Amino acid sequence: MLQLHFNLKLRAYLLNYKCCAFDNCTAELANARGGAFCALHESEYGAKCRVVGCSNSKTAGIQACEQHRADWNRFQTSSSRQKLSGFRRMVRRQGETLPWESASAPNPQRHDEDMPEIQRSNYFTPRRFYCVETICAPCGVVIAWTKFAKAESPENILGFLQSVYPTEESRPAYICIDKACLVLRHSIVNGSWDMWRKTTRFIVDSYHYINHSTADFLCRKWCNPAPMDGSAPNLVIVERDADGIPHFKRAFNTQACEQLNAWLGGFDTILRRMTVGNFNWFLHAMLSHHSLMVMEKQQLRSGGKGGANIDSGDSSSDLDDGNSDNDGDM
Q1: DSSP structure string for 159-190
Q2: How many CA atoms lie within 13 A of 10 on its CB side?
Q3: pLDDT at 82
Q4: Is residue 256 assigned to a domain?
Q5: Judging by DSSP bridges, how do beta strands 127-128 and 236-240 pair with one another?
Q6: Cα–Cα dist 301/192, whole Å
Q7: What is the pLDDT of residues 35-63, one digit of tens each?
Q8: In a domain, 169, yes or no
Q9: Does residue 263 lie within any of the structural domains?
Q10: How far apart are the C-alpha atoms of 164 and 171, rounded to whole Å?
Q11: Number of structural domains, the chain?
Q12: Would 36 be classed as within a structural domain?
């Protein structure tokens, strides 16, 4: 039986989830209201200057020593501006820019490029988890989720997939990721592709595929979500419209996690202020609730026809982004 699972990160609204500021520590904050360290690092560094590499004691009233007072003042100024910007966003319409303000520049990061790790210069504020990673079935049911502390790197993605699908029998035929070409390259380099190639193919979801480089041969040939050369008949099907005219159509919904992201966006204000334990429990409960709602809708939609329709929300009769020349096994 064909299995098609999707692995996409939840978007920026979950990046406000906080943990200990110390390097490589993801423990819960000792003080969730204004603290920056977990209990262990608070006892070790709580009385010291919060600038990285400085062992001086803090000056009374600030979080830095006298030598780094200027760093603390710059942080205070920057923090105040960020808070003011937040208040402005609350009273404006989404996307509104006043005439005297410069338009915000688009994010230059592409989905087929890796994200560099940013080094911290101080511990004035707690660190934030990079993202929550989910695996969804095409119908929207959540299979598994985890948290990535620093980056959604190919190594982290492959480790997560290996923990969820430890055996060949459990692995799906297709795994759809916005950066599938990076994951494929990394798996080839570290040798794990010898294990995955027996059962699974990594493809890019249709939404992000249009932003990937057209000159990337590996991405276009092996990660195409809708190849038109017949190399992946399980991904592209032929359907007839009301007039009997045949057209190509995607067989599966590759936007399951994007739709999940939109639903979870309504809980942004609640999630960003939670402690580690509450965050984990609440998110798990809401993902379970979402999966139950999806299964109930699928049962109603199937109407006793013997199966649920899982291609809604991502079908297309004009698949012109899938031209490739796949002609063999990798």
Answers
A1: HHHHHH--SGGG--SEEE-TTHHHHHHHHHHH
A2: 31
A3: 54
A4: yes
A5: unpaired
A6: 39
A7: 899 999 999 999 999 999 999 999 999 99
A8: yes
A9: yes
A10: 9
A11: 1
A12: no
